[in-house]
Amino acid sequence: MRNEMSLTFSAISENESFARVTVAAFVAQLDPTLDELTEIKTVVSEAVTNCIIHGYENSGAGKVMINAFLEDGVVTVTVHDDGVGIKNVEQAKQPLFTTKPELERSGMGFTIMENFMDHVTIETEEGKGTTIIMTKEIARNRAVCK
C-alpha cells in the first residue's frame, strides 16, 4: 500500500523544525529505528535549510514544498523550492563548499543527505528552483525482543 503526504510552508527558518517533526511523524508508521528516524529528520532539516538560505537567499519570500511517500518499506522525501536554483550542482555537493560563509554555513548539507539516505537526486534550474529527491529503505525483519 502507498501512503503519501504533502506540506507547504513559508520559507522562514522558524518552519524548519515543523517540517522535520512532521515528516518524522509520518515516517513513524513504518516503525523505523531511532537511528533511521534521526537520519530522516536530519536530511529534512538540511534540505529545508538549503531552500531557505540558498534557494530564497534567506529573504522570507517563497514557499517550501515537501512530499513524502511510503511504499513497501521505502520512504521517499521530496523537498522543493522555486528559488534561484543551483549554479553548479557538482561543486555544491563537495564537502565544505558553501556560498554563504558569512552565515557560518558548514557546507556539509548534501554530504549529510547522501550519507544518511540510500539515494539522493538533485534537480535544479537557475532562476526556477531546486528539487531534492531522497529515498531510504527502512530496515525490515528486525529481531523481536522476547
Structure, described:
One of its GO terms (molecular function) is protein serine/threonine kinase activity. It catalyses: L-threonyl-[protein] + ATP = O-phospho-L-threonyl-[protein] + ADP + H(+); L-seryl-[protein] + ATP = O-phospho-L-seryl-[protein] + ADP + H(+). There is one protein chain. By secondary structure, the chain is of the alpha+beta class. It has one domain (2-137): Histidine kinase-like ATPase, C-terminal domain (Heat Shock Protein 90). It has four helices and five strands, in the order βααββααββ. The chain has helices at residues 16-27, 34-55, 89-92, 109-116, and strands spanning 2-10, 63-71, 74-81, 119-125, 129-137. Strands 1-2-3-5-4 form a five-stranded antiparallel sheet, with helices on one face. A hairpin with a 2-residue loop joins β2 (63-71) and β3. α1 packs antiparallel against α2 (34-55) and α2 (34-55) runs antiparallel to α4. The protein is globular. The chain starts with a strand and ends in a 9-residue tail after the last strand. 28% of the residues are buried.
What is the N-to-C succession of helices and strands? EHHEEHHEE
For this entry, what is the oligomeric state of its chains? Answer: single chain
Beta-strand content estimate: 25-35%
Number of helices: 4
Distance between the ends = 29 Å
* Helical/strand content category: alpha+beta
The number of E-state strands comes to 5
The number of domains is 1
Overall pLDDT, averaged? Answer: 88
In spatial order, strands of the major sheet run 1-2-3-5-4
CATH topology name, in short, is Heat Shock Protein 90
Protein name: Anti-sigma F factor
Catalytic activity: L-threonyl-[protein] + ATP = O-phospho-L-threonyl-[protein] + ADP + H(+); L-seryl-[protein] + ATP = O-phospho-L-seryl-[protein] + ADP + H(+)
GO molecular function: protein serine/threonine kinase activity
Pfam family, one: HATPase_c_2
